[in-house]
Amino acid sequence: MAADKGLLVQIRLTDDYLSRKSKVSPQHAVRELIWNALDADATEVTIRLLRTDFGNIGDQIGLVVTDNGEGFDLERAKLAFGNLGQSWKVNKRTKRGRLMHGRKGEGRLAVAALGPTASWSSVSRVGDQLVECLVERKSPSEYRIHGDLRPTRQHTGTVVEVGDFHRHYPELEPERMVSYLLEEFALYLSMYPGRIDITYSDELLRYDELVDQRSEKELFIELEDGTARKFALTIIEWKNDQTERSLSLCDTDGFTLQKTHMQRVKAPRFNFTAYLRGDRLRELNEQNMLVDLSPEYRAIYEAAIGAIQEHFKERVAEDERRLVERWRAEEIYPYGAAPASPLEHVEREVFVRCARTVEQKLETFQGDDKKGKRFIFELLRTAIDRSPGDLFKVFTEVLDLPKKDLQDLSKMLDRTSLSAIIQASAMVAERLEFIVGLEDLLNDPGTKNSFKEREQLHRMVQKELWLFGDKWLLSVSDSGLTKALVQHAGLLGQKKPKGKVQTSSGRPERVDLMLSAVTSDGADHVDHLVVELKRPNVMLDQMELAQLETYANTVADDSRFHGRGITWNFWFMTVQNDRAIERRKHQTGLPKGCVTNSETVRVWVKTWAELLQDCKNRLHFVQEKLNYYPDLEAGLNYMREKYAAETTGVL
């Protein structure tokens, strides 16, 4: 009996499936039609809305896209409209050398998002003759093609007409669509300056006239597998305020794979669109991994946001520096030389932003009255420093600020005084500078070998207890466990304990720092944190760790240290650990870093890198709002000023 070869079945795409594939936004549909024209090497693309009445005031009923590209003939039409999947355009260039956008062969389906009827009339050159091809959409899966027709036009190009709009689309009106198209095609138009004209409802996309500045940055981003991949970041700053701030993730050719609107980047007075390009983005898109749940996507996205923030931090600083230079030249700037402290630095930043508004709003600043201008700036400086309530009154009654600006200022002043805001900002700035400076002292080969534990590191850390969290207060510094017990009893309101505390060796050991925190639910709930410090050049091994575990065991075995709601944590702070310690930091069933665990006592090994990263995470939100990212020079200067004695011989 002959072997059964089975029944060969081919997949048939239903109208329902194709309709779902065509469910895109109206703006996206128009964008795809423009890309098709550009892929045909068009230098002129015109989009015109069809309306019930003449002019631009009637209801929308359809749309016509006309281009002067190469067009398509019968054979190309069969390929384009007869297949769904990989496009013939993949990795192709036009005759003018331009990159083609098409990848999946799905662009033509997008027209269904606008209306049920559509036609393509295309004139192309075959040999030395012009021929026309007509395609009519009959249903999502059926297109009727007429080829080798006598041309109705004497030049190549395509006219696409979409009729019977499903409804009126406000997003297709010129006031919204032009800014959308500028954002979508800005990167592409910048690659071919002066060679392409796109006109929407009689309005030419004037890319060159609307761009204020274009910046390019190269990023190397470390991915999950430890490799660093190269990405290109383009930031286009616009002269107008019609476009929305956005980040487009693109393949290397600059074609958008995903677009997100950005609220996080603090860049006052700047209107911009950013584009991140890279091969890895295309790969992630093909794997459907351009989503928030993908750690790699988040790493790439956060790196791009960080680079954009840094760019505008520099742009804001440059803008304000020029402004201050002009005020100095006019002799109206009320401050002297460089700021003497971080607080004064923040104060001057507030002044510049307020003074800019004053200058724009007051007629006094349009004339040559230097004394009057200087007097106003002196009053503004005094108000910032001493009387924020009066400052708000000036902005309300004299300057007549827009409602939103007044609301923002009002919220700020109602919550706290401007002086307090400046002080809080300065505190965060100082903490950020301390982190940068300490990281360098702990890790730089030139300082870590000479950086001492007790005379330097210890003295700094006991003044910066916020490193371990804002709830902690210092109970003991460089003292024995007996004093730690006395402090513990005092927090509980108990009498001073009798007798000394000794370890199993019989010796009274000393602890570097003991921090304590009493929770709000009663004085009988107490947390203790014992911190043991080591020189940066000391690698932690089992022998070193055994010392801290001896302290912990002593506390665990001595009932005087215990009670309801009392916890003890012992932290060993290191720069580097040997392999045995690293293995103990990753034990099954224990939190990362915990090497010993009991009901009331835990021993942890933490690196300074881990602790400082936790600090950065806690400060991140406020840092973003301040838009302050101190560099190494700022961090070391802070160390020299605040810890002159502790850094002698090191910095």
Protein model, in words:
- The chain has 19 helices and 21 strands.
- With 651 residues, it is of the alpha+beta class.
- The strands form 4 sheets. An 8-stranded mixed sheet has the order 5-4-3-6-2-1-7-8.
- It is elongated and about 110 Å long.
- Helix 9 crosses helix 10.
- The chain starts with 14 loop residues before the first helix and ends in a 9-residue tail after the last helix.
Largest sheet: 8 strands, mixed
* Strand arrangement, major sheet: 5-4-3-6-2-1-7-8
Task: Tell me which CATH architecture of the largest domain applies here.
Answer: 3-Layer(aba) Sandwich
Mean pLDDT: 83
Rg estimate, integer Å: 34 Å
Number of strands: 21
Number of helix segments?
19
Task: Using the alpha-carbon principal axes, give the shape.
Answer: elongated
Number of domains: 4
Q: What's the CATH topology label of the largest domain? A: Trna Endonuclease, Chain: A, domain 1
For the termini, the CA-CA separation is 92 Å
Structural class: alpha+beta
In percent, how much strand structure appears in the residues?
Answer: 15-25%
What is the CATH level 1 assignment of the largest domain? Alpha Beta
Name the poorly predicted regions. 412-416
The helicity comes to: 25-40%
